[in-house]
Amino acid sequence: MMNGAHASILDAVGGTPIVKLNRVVPADVQAEIYVKCEFMNPAGSMKDRIAINMIRAAEEEGRLKPGGTIVEATSGNTGAGLAMVAAVKGYRCVFVMPDKMSQEKIAALRAWGARVVVCPTAVEPNDPRSYYSVARRIAEETPNAMLANQYHNPDNPDGHYRSTGPEIWAQTGGEIDALVAGMGTGGTLSGTGKYLKEQKPDVQIVGVDPVGSVYYDFVKHGLVTRPFSYKVEGIGEDFFPSTMNLKVLDDCVRVDDRECFMMTRDLVRLEGLYVGGSCGAAVAGAIKWARGRNKRERIVVLLPDSASRYLSKVFNDEWMRENGFADEPTLGTVRELLALKPQHLVTARSDETLRTVIGKMKQHGVSQLPVVDGEQLKGIVSEVEVLRNLVSGEAHLDAPIAHILDSDYAGVTPDTRIDLLKSVLADAKVAIVTDGPTLLGIVSKIDVIDYLSHRMSEQQAS
Fold it and tell me: What residues are labeled active site?
């Protein structure tokens, strides 16, 4: 073979550069923030690494035989990596995607010769229509097929343990204080984080989670909250994949859609980095985390994929305007709503009695209370749940409320847009507002109505 050439495109996976960010990092951030350009992998994303590892392991274990079919539930990037490997090795592919994914991703998979099945996004993971369930069914019904199963396949994080972790350690010469990445299947954070922790135990592993995903509230408060839909692709989950090892994680940061998309556009226009929406999410989260730390340290952020898969969305001005991302939020933010509410936040403890909590509700005229033990949010206690327990006879007025706590709430930040909050409250009883570990307030439907009525009155008066 010719000197300097690769045997196939698969040998070109990895070796992506690390680049310092300059113009998008605010002056008040002391940390140096670097990005690892995983979008420069041959199939356009960091998922190329796990695709190679999952197929290698399946071949070695006899789960994938010559002429076989690879089936996967994917947001697009894992599918692209698998399709590239399959093209080289002669396998067929069937990919199942949620309907919020861009047309570019669907077209790219079909360009590799894959069959693509599109399923609804707004269904539960165990719903037979969900893209997880459909992929499982297709794999079972197709002869000589293998479900890649990135959400529960240990070869996913193992791919990053073997590849991404050692590469970052070698490239930085160990001069890394923190790794920041989006939280999806968990393979990246779990595998890369495990390797880096073995080399340098005090390196910080930080996950970035979008508003609407389940990770943030679980990591910060130990609570499983109701997920709701969001626009950014490729990060966040509505369930907990077994490939996510949260023990590796040191911290978690929450971002919303608008932050993700505006940062994505800035990365392209100000830093020349041709990246997608989840990259904007990771960098926005890294800047938030670094500002809170206020330390001189070196942070490496993983940039998963390319802008080419989002030209009809994030980089389409009309799409951005239609979804309320192009301009400042016209209805305001949760921060502005909270400013109109009484400043005193009424809470309860899980060891308080039902009698005491009912008294608090009556005294303050509220229908639900956040339950906080120390600084730990434990859930909410709502009048609906209190009433249900009283009617059923299950309640004891002098017993602690711990057994009637409710997790039917959604978590938002002060910067969450009111138009997004309206969608959140269509699915959840209330929204809990947190800024990092700090509980700022609780917002109900009537709070939004009051806020919008106040704005309308002011506009009419002016």
Answer: 47
